Each structure stands twice: as C-alpha cells, then as structure tokens.
Amino acid sequence: MNDIRRIMVVAADIKHSGKSVRMGVSLAERYDAALVVLHVEHDPFGEDGWNLPFLSVEEEYKALLKEEKKNLAEVIRSESVRGLPVKEMIRKGEPIGVIRKVVEEEKIDLLLLPAHEEGRFEHLLYGNINSAIIRRMPCSILLVKQETGA
Questions:
Q1: What is residue 130's predicted lDDT score, i.e. its pLDDT?
Q2: Model-level pTM?
Q3: What are 48-52's contacts with CB under 8 Å, separation 24+?
C-alpha cells in the first residue's frame, strides 16, 4: 500500500457514508495521502432522468439532497479541524461517469465506497451503483461495510 498517494471517498449520503469518510481519513493519515471526498448530485427527475409528474417526490428528493450535503459538510469540517486537509467536491451528473472522471482528473489510487444494502427506492433511482462502479474504475476500490440496524 506504499503507492497510495491519493484517496477518494464517494459520499452519497451521511447515513451510508460517515464510516467511509472516517476510514478515508484514517487511511490518509496513515499513508500520508491526499484525501478527496466526492458527493455526486444525480437528478433522476432532470433532463437525463425520468419525466414523471411526481412533483412531491421530486421536491422531497431535492430537500433530502440539501440536508445530506449539510450533514456531509459537517463531517468533513470536523475531520479537517483535526488537521487533515480534505478536498470536498460536489459534482452534478450521472454518478458512475462523474466518479470515473474525478478519479482520472485527481489521479486517485484508492476509491472508498460505502457497502450497504440498497433500499427499493434507492435501487429504483440509481440501480446497483457499486457493481457498476467496480467494473469501470481504473483504480483499486475498498468497500466499507456499514453498520446495520441504524
């Protein structure tokens, strides 16, 4: 693992990403690596997504994204206070393409993904993202098991 210089954590939401961010911080400190935390905003209701008349679901989804970005920023801020510089990136688009692009741009050596069981709604919106990411990334990937029953 001596060749790990740049680590990226994909943080979809704080419920499933908090442990991944903490693990990314720990690994970055241990290996003196740069740390990037990426949050991808995917709008399944936008131009490339659905064209369905479910305004209440769309508004609920946008409110959820806003809350998750705020919670994630707090986690990152608390880790930065400990002295580790954390580069936070928020990008919009289709998650797999955005993640791959950032991995290439930032020359990421190790990608951390939260490993959790997707709920039906999440699977409907995103599909099985981790499997697709694993097949398409040019770097090593570490799946971080999340606590269950929370």
A1: 73
A2: 0.75
A3: 48/94
**Angle 95-106/129-136 helices, nearest 10 degrees?**
40
> 139: buried, middle or exposed (CB in 10 Å: 19+, 13-18, 0-12)?
middle
| CA 130 – CA 78 distance, rounded (Å) | 27
Measured CA to CA, the distance from residue 17 to residue 104 in angstroms comes to 22
pLDDT digits (tens, 9 = 90+) for 90-134: 888 888 899 999 999 999 999 998 876 555 555 555 556 777 888
The winner for highest mean pLDDT among 29-33, 59-63, 114-118, 131-135 is: 29-33
Distances, alpha carbon 138 to alpha carbons 47, 49, 104, 134, in Å: 28, 26, 8, 9
Percent of the chain that is helix, strand, coil (3-state, to 5): 50, 20, 30
Helices (H), the chain: 14-31, 55-81, 95-106, 120-126, 129-136
Say which amino acid occupies 117.
E
